[in-house]
Design a protein that fits this description.
binds zinc ion, 66 residues, rod-shaped, mainly alpha
């Protein structure tokens, strides 16, 4: 029999074979962790985009608006 562990806390899982977490709390915590990772990634990308925009602004002649 294959031993499965919780995706969040790595504790051994007892019960149904398709279980991925020990309980609802572990599943919630795991999902929250995933969101934090995504947010960090978005922040990182935003920072790069902002930097690129600054570089482009420096290289592009100012538009005549008035
Ligand atoms: Zn767990």
């Amino acid at each position: 029999m294959e031993q499965k562990v919780c995706l969040h806390c790595n504790k051994e899982l007892i019960g149904r074979a398709d279980k991925k977490f020990c309980d609802k709390q572990c599943r919630n915590d795991y999902n929250n962790t995933q969101n934090v990772t995504t947010n960090n990634y978005i922040r990182k990308v935003n920072r790069i985009i902002k930097k690129n925009r600054n570089i482009l602004e420096e290289l592009t002649p100012k538009r005549q608006i008035h």
